[in-house]
Amino acid sequence: MKFVSADRPQTEEGYQYHIACKPGDVARYVLLPGDPERVPKISALWDEAKEIAFHREYRTHTGKYKGIPISVTSTGIGGPSTAIAIEELAAIGADTFIRVGSTGAIQPGIEIGDLIIAKAAVRLEGTSKQYVRIEYPASADYEVTLALIEAAETLGVRYHVGITASTDSFYVGQARPGLNGYFPSFAKHLIDDLRQAKVTNFEMEAATLFTLANIYGLRAGCVCAVFANRVTNEFGKAGEKEAALVASEAVKILAEWDEEKEKKGKKYWFPSLRKL
């Protein structure tokens, strides 16, 4: 296989080195879990699906959900691998991304298995800083966020909307003691400071996703199942299927809104568009 250049490792046909996909392999709407094992769990909820590629941490399935073309690609953990996924998926035609992951809640009133829809992210990771200055906001696309809320309401799941904090470290970076009790002073006050600022949760990819999507003119959102409750110090795996269903249903909603915008000649969706 011959690649065009070291600057952009892809073939003349557009085959992307890391994700092992080419134009036509993925839909415009792509769900982004971190874990490759979540990919078949998500696609099993669709009408149909097939595996396109599985290279390194990047596993891709493409199919249809309620008649809408949809894809899912795992990103691995953290910002660096997520950025590669966004770069290469966008290069082959994807333009709308929804992170489907797990998270740790830091505010009271959020239970294990609840969903958190992120409207923005605190950029505590390093990847986004290599793309743009630190003052640049990591904000979710409003249409994707509204579609996620609509989907959660339609499916009747318990959810919250808030600001996530994306980190590069699961342990000390999220105010957990490291090996042998290593716990520097700056980490000890992190949760209290974020809680006072009304940040709802920790995870590791949304800030990179939101930042790159805004830079490149793409759309992105995020829905995560709460596995960790940092208020009560509980941990459990729950809400994974619900998060996947909400994200898939949001794609159906977005496809309907996109069709509606095209018919009405509008660039942005708004609630009274259907009345025009």
Automatic annotation (TrEMBL):
Keywords: Cytoplasm, Glycosyltransferase, Transferase. Residues 28-246 form the Nucleoside phosphorylase domain. Pathway: Pyrimidine metabolism; UMP biosynthesis via salvage pathway; uracil from uridine (phosphorylase route): step 1/1. One of its GO terms (molecular function) is uridine phosphorylase activity. It comes from the Archaea. InterPro entries: Nucleoside_phosphorylase_CS, Nucleoside_phosphorylase_d, Nucleoside_phosphorylase_sf, Uridine_phosphorylase. Transmembrane segments: none annotated. It catalyses: uridine + phosphate = alpha-D-ribose 1-phosphate + uracil. The keyword Nucleotide-binding does not apply. GO terms for cellular component: cytosol. Pfam families: PNP_UDP_1. Belongs to the PNP/UDP phosphorylase family. This is Uridine phosphorylase.
